[in-house]
Amino acid sequence: MPRVVASLLIANLVAFAAGYLLPSGSERLVDAGALWYPANIHFGPWQVVTYMFLHANLTHIFFNMFALVSFGRILELQWGATRFLLFYFLCGIGAALVQTGINWHDFHDLHARAVAAGLTPPEISSLLANGGGVLPRDPAVKAMLVELYGIYARPTLGASGAIYGLLVAFGFLHPNAKLAVMFVPVPIAAKYFIPGLLLLDLFSGVTGFSLFGAGIAHYAHLGGAAIGFLLMLLWRKRGRAPAGHGTTAEGR
Protein backbone atom coordinates (compact mmCIF):
# COMPACT_ATOMS: atom_id res chain seq x y z
CA MET A 1 0.00 0.00 0.00
CA PRO A 2 1.45 3.43 -0.90
CA ARG A 3 2.52 5.58 2.01
CA VAL A 4 0.01 8.46 1.80
CA VAL A 5 -3.00 6.14 1.62
CA ALA A 6 -1.54 4.09 4.47
CA SER A 7 -0.94 7.24 6.55
CA LEU A 8 -4.48 8.54 5.95
CA LEU A 9 -5.91 5.14 6.84
CA ILE A 10 -3.93 5.00 10.09
CA ALA A 11 -4.84 8.59 11.03
CA ASN A 12 -8.55 7.90 10.54
CA LEU A 13 -8.41 4.67 12.51
CA VAL A 14 -6.48 6.31 15.36
CA ALA A 15 -8.99 9.16 15.56
CA PHE A 16 -11.87 6.70 15.53
CA ALA A 17 -10.29 4.56 18.26
CA ALA A 18 -9.54 7.64 20.38
CA GLY A 19 -13.22 8.52 20.37
CA TYR A 20 -13.98 5.22 22.08
CA LEU A 21 -10.94 4.77 24.32
CA LEU A 22 -10.43 8.24 25.81
CA PRO A 23 -12.77 9.54 28.56
CA SER A 24 -15.44 11.59 26.80
CA GLY A 25 -13.21 11.20 23.76
CA SER A 26 -15.91 11.12 21.12
CA GLU A 27 -17.66 14.23 22.42
CA ARG A 28 -14.40 16.16 22.75
CA LEU A 29 -13.18 15.19 19.30
CA VAL A 30 -16.49 16.14 17.69
CA ASP A 31 -16.64 19.47 19.55
CA ALA A 32 -13.11 20.38 18.47
CA GLY A 33 -12.69 18.69 15.12
CA ALA A 34 -16.05 18.24 13.37
CA LEU A 35 -17.26 20.94 11.01
CA TRP A 36 -19.80 23.12 12.81
CA TYR A 37 -22.00 25.88 11.46
CA PRO A 38 -20.00 29.17 11.71
CA ALA A 39 -22.42 30.72 14.23
CA ASN A 40 -22.01 27.77 16.60
CA ILE A 41 -19.73 28.23 19.60
CA HIS A 42 -17.75 25.10 18.62
CA PHE A 43 -16.83 26.37 15.15
CA GLY A 44 -13.17 26.82 14.22
CA PRO A 45 -11.57 27.44 10.79
CA TRP A 46 -9.28 24.38 11.18
CA GLN A 47 -12.37 22.17 11.04
CA VAL A 48 -12.43 22.28 7.22
CA VAL A 49 -9.49 19.84 7.51
CA THR A 50 -10.01 17.99 10.79
CA TYR A 51 -13.60 16.95 10.04
CA MET A 52 -12.24 14.55 7.41
CA PHE A 53 -10.66 12.37 10.11
CA LEU A 54 -13.77 11.88 12.27
CA HIS A 55 -16.55 9.38 11.65
CA ALA A 56 -19.94 8.78 13.21
CA ASN A 57 -19.86 5.00 13.54
CA LEU A 58 -18.19 1.80 12.39
CA THR A 59 -20.19 1.56 9.17
CA HIS A 60 -19.32 5.15 8.27
CA ILE A 61 -15.57 4.68 8.67
CA PHE A 62 -15.57 1.21 7.08
CA PHE A 63 -17.05 2.33 3.77
CA ASN A 64 -14.93 5.48 3.60
CA MET A 65 -11.71 3.63 4.35
CA PHE A 66 -12.65 0.81 1.98
CA ALA A 67 -13.05 3.36 -0.81
CA LEU A 68 -9.84 5.17 0.20
CA VAL A 69 -7.82 1.97 -0.11
CA SER A 70 -9.63 0.71 -3.23
CA PHE A 71 -9.36 3.90 -5.29
CA GLY A 72 -6.71 5.95 -3.49
CA ARG A 73 -4.13 3.19 -3.80
CA ILE A 74 -4.46 3.18 -7.60
CA LEU A 75 -4.39 6.98 -7.86
CA GLU A 76 -1.39 7.45 -5.58
CA LEU A 77 0.62 4.84 -7.49
CA GLN A 78 -0.31 6.61 -10.73
CA TRP A 79 0.24 10.20 -9.56
CA GLY A 80 2.79 10.00 -6.80
CA ALA A 81 2.45 10.93 -3.15
CA THR A 82 2.57 14.74 -3.42
CA ARG A 83 -0.08 15.18 -6.08
CA PHE A 84 -2.35 12.60 -4.48
CA LEU A 85 -2.15 14.26 -1.06
CA LEU A 86 -2.83 17.70 -2.59
CA PHE A 87 -5.81 16.35 -4.52
CA TYR A 88 -7.25 14.57 -1.47
CA PHE A 89 -7.13 17.61 0.79
CA LEU A 90 -8.36 20.07 -1.85
CA CYS A 91 -11.40 17.86 -2.45
CA GLY A 92 -12.05 17.48 1.27
CA ILE A 93 -11.71 21.21 1.97
CA GLY A 94 -13.85 22.04 -1.06
CA ALA A 95 -16.53 19.67 0.20
CA ALA A 96 -16.51 21.43 3.58
CA LEU A 97 -16.85 24.87 1.98
CA VAL A 98 -19.70 23.78 -0.28
CA GLN A 99 -21.59 22.17 2.61
CA THR A 100 -21.05 25.27 4.76
CA GLY A 101 -22.25 27.52 1.94
CA ILE A 102 -25.44 25.48 1.48
CA ASN A 103 -26.02 25.50 5.24
CA TRP A 104 -25.45 29.28 5.34
CA HIS A 105 -28.03 29.85 2.62
CA ASP A 106 -30.61 27.54 4.21
CA PHE A 107 -30.02 28.95 7.69
CA HIS A 108 -30.59 32.56 6.65
CA ASP A 109 -33.63 31.63 4.59
CA LEU A 110 -35.20 29.80 7.54
CA HIS A 111 -34.19 32.59 9.94
CA ALA A 112 -35.88 35.21 7.74
CA ARG A 113 -39.04 33.10 7.52
CA ALA A 114 -39.11 32.64 11.30
CA VAL A 115 -38.80 36.41 11.80
CA ALA A 116 -41.59 36.97 9.28
CA ALA A 117 -43.72 34.53 11.31
CA GLY A 118 -43.40 36.77 14.38
CA LEU A 119 -40.26 35.64 16.23
CA THR A 120 -37.57 38.15 17.10
CA PRO A 121 -33.87 37.49 16.35
CA PRO A 122 -33.00 37.38 20.10
CA GLU A 123 -35.74 34.78 20.66
CA ILE A 124 -34.38 32.66 17.82
CA SER A 125 -30.81 32.98 19.10
CA SER A 126 -31.92 31.94 22.58
CA LEU A 127 -33.74 28.88 21.24
CA LEU A 128 -30.68 27.84 19.25
CA ALA A 129 -28.20 28.43 22.07
CA ASN A 130 -30.31 26.60 24.67
CA GLY A 131 -31.53 23.83 22.41
CA GLY A 132 -35.14 24.47 23.41
CA GLY A 133 -37.54 26.82 25.09
CA VAL A 134 -41.09 28.03 24.62
CA LEU A 135 -41.99 27.19 21.03
CA PRO A 136 -44.76 28.77 18.96
CA ARG A 137 -47.99 26.80 18.63
CA ASP A 138 -48.00 26.94 14.84
CA PRO A 139 -46.73 23.52 13.61
CA ALA A 140 -45.19 25.06 10.49
CA VAL A 141 -43.15 27.53 12.56
CA LYS A 142 -42.12 24.72 14.93
CA ALA A 143 -40.92 22.70 11.94
CA MET A 144 -38.89 25.68 10.70
CA LEU A 145 -37.22 26.08 14.08
CA VAL A 146 -36.40 22.37 14.28
CA GLU A 147 -34.80 22.55 10.84
CA LEU A 148 -32.94 25.71 11.80
CA TYR A 149 -31.63 24.07 14.95
CA GLY A 150 -30.52 21.05 12.92
CA ILE A 151 -28.28 23.25 10.78
CA TYR A 152 -26.94 25.09 13.82
CA ALA A 153 -26.29 22.09 16.07
CA ARG A 154 -25.55 19.16 13.73
CA PRO A 155 -21.88 19.01 12.69
CA THR A 156 -20.48 17.52 9.48
CA LEU A 157 -17.84 14.82 9.77
CA GLY A 158 -16.25 12.12 7.65
CA ALA A 159 -13.90 11.68 4.71
CA SER A 160 -16.71 11.23 2.18
CA GLY A 161 -16.16 14.57 0.43
CA ALA A 162 -12.52 13.74 -0.28
CA ILE A 163 -13.49 10.18 -1.23
CA TYR A 164 -15.98 11.45 -3.81
CA GLY A 165 -13.18 13.49 -5.34
CA LEU A 166 -11.14 10.28 -5.64
CA LEU A 167 -14.09 8.54 -7.28
CA VAL A 168 -14.34 11.26 -9.92
CA ALA A 169 -10.59 11.13 -10.58
CA PHE A 170 -10.71 7.36 -10.91
CA GLY A 171 -13.62 7.65 -13.35
CA PHE A 172 -11.65 10.17 -15.41
CA LEU A 173 -8.58 7.95 -15.65
CA HIS A 174 -10.25 4.53 -15.78
CA PRO A 175 -13.73 5.03 -17.23
CA ASN A 176 -14.08 1.42 -18.39
CA ALA A 177 -12.93 -0.17 -15.14
CA LYS A 178 -15.54 -2.61 -13.86
CA LEU A 179 -16.59 -1.95 -10.27
CA ALA A 180 -18.04 -4.71 -8.11
CA VAL A 181 -20.83 -2.84 -6.32
CA MET A 182 -22.45 -4.18 -3.17
CA PHE A 183 -25.93 -5.68 -3.72
CA VAL A 184 -25.54 -5.44 -7.52
CA PRO A 185 -25.05 -8.85 -9.20
CA VAL A 186 -22.93 -7.65 -12.15
CA PRO A 187 -19.93 -5.27 -12.29
CA ILE A 188 -20.64 -1.73 -13.50
CA ALA A 189 -18.24 0.43 -15.52
CA ALA A 190 -16.94 3.44 -13.61
CA LYS A 191 -18.23 5.82 -16.30
CA TYR A 192 -21.79 4.72 -15.45
CA PHE A 193 -21.57 4.00 -11.74
CA ILE A 194 -19.92 7.25 -10.60
CA PRO A 195 -22.27 9.68 -12.45
CA GLY A 196 -25.20 7.60 -11.24
CA LEU A 197 -24.00 7.89 -7.65
CA LEU A 198 -23.64 11.66 -8.01
CA LEU A 199 -27.14 12.00 -9.45
CA LEU A 200 -28.49 10.01 -6.52
CA ASP A 201 -26.75 12.40 -4.10
CA LEU A 202 -28.13 15.40 -5.96
CA PHE A 203 -31.65 13.93 -5.82
CA SER A 204 -31.29 13.27 -2.09
CA GLY A 205 -29.91 16.75 -1.41
CA VAL A 206 -32.74 18.48 -3.28
CA THR A 207 -35.63 16.32 -2.08
CA GLY A 208 -34.41 15.31 1.37
CA PHE A 209 -35.15 11.65 0.58
CA SER A 210 -32.09 9.41 1.04
CA LEU A 211 -31.71 5.70 0.36
CA PHE A 212 -28.76 5.59 2.75
CA GLY A 213 -30.50 7.06 5.80
CA ALA A 214 -30.78 10.46 7.46
CA GLY A 215 -27.96 12.78 8.46
CA ILE A 216 -25.89 12.42 5.27
CA ALA A 217 -24.16 15.55 3.97
CA HIS A 218 -25.07 15.07 0.31
CA TYR A 219 -23.81 18.50 -0.73
CA ALA A 220 -20.42 17.75 0.83
CA HIS A 221 -20.26 14.66 -1.41
CA LEU A 222 -21.16 16.77 -4.44
CA GLY A 223 -18.72 19.50 -3.42
CA GLY A 224 -15.83 17.06 -3.18
CA ALA A 225 -16.80 15.57 -6.53
CA ALA A 226 -17.00 19.04 -8.13
CA ILE A 227 -13.53 20.00 -6.91
CA GLY A 228 -12.17 16.68 -8.13
CA PHE A 229 -13.79 17.25 -11.52
CA LEU A 230 -12.33 20.75 -11.84
CA LEU A 231 -8.87 19.59 -10.81
CA MET A 232 -8.94 16.78 -13.37
CA LEU A 233 -9.98 19.23 -16.09
CA LEU A 234 -7.18 21.60 -15.08
CA TRP A 235 -4.54 18.86 -14.99
CA ARG A 236 -5.71 17.42 -18.30
CA LYS A 237 -5.50 20.86 -19.89
CA ARG A 238 -1.93 21.19 -18.63
CA GLY A 239 -1.10 17.67 -19.75
CA ARG A 240 -0.50 16.45 -16.20
CA ALA A 241 -3.26 13.86 -15.88
CA PRO A 242 -2.14 10.62 -17.61
CA ALA A 243 -4.63 8.70 -19.68
CA GLY A 244 -6.39 5.82 -17.96
CA HIS A 245 -6.26 2.12 -18.70
CA GLY A 246 -8.65 -0.75 -18.18
CA THR A 247 -7.86 -1.21 -14.50
CA THR A 248 -10.29 -3.27 -12.46
CA ALA A 249 -11.16 -2.24 -8.89
CA GLU A 250 -13.74 -2.99 -6.29
CA GLY A 251 -16.10 -0.26 -5.07
CA ARG A 252 -18.95 0.30 -2.65
CATH topology: Rhomboid-like fold
Q: Going by CATH, what is the homologous superfamily?
A: Rhomboid-like
CATH level 1 class label: Mainly Alpha
Overall outline: globular
The secondary structure category is: mainly alpha
Q: State which percent range the strand residues make up.
A: under 5%
What is the mean pLDDT?
88
**CATH-derived architecture:** Up-down Bundle
If strands are numbered along the chain, what order do they take across the biggest sheet? 2-1-3
User: Assembly state here?
Assistant: single chain
Helix content: 55-70%
Cα distance, first to last residue? 19 Å
Count of DSSP H/I helices: 10
Q: Which stretches are poorly predicted, pLDDT < 50 over at least 5 residues? A: 243-252
Q: What is the number of beta strands?
A: 3
Give, in order, the helices and strands.
HHHHHHHHEEHHE
Plain-language structure description:
This protein has 10 helices and 3 strands. A 3-stranded mixed beta sheet has the order 2-1-3. It is mainly α and 252 residues long. The longest helix has 36 residues. 66% of the residues lie in helices and 3% in strands. Helix 8 packs antiparallel against helix 9 and helix 9 crosses helix 10. The chain has one domain: Rhomboid-like (Rhomboid-like fold, Up-down Bundle), CATH 1.20.1540.10. Strand 1 and strand 2 form a beta hairpin.
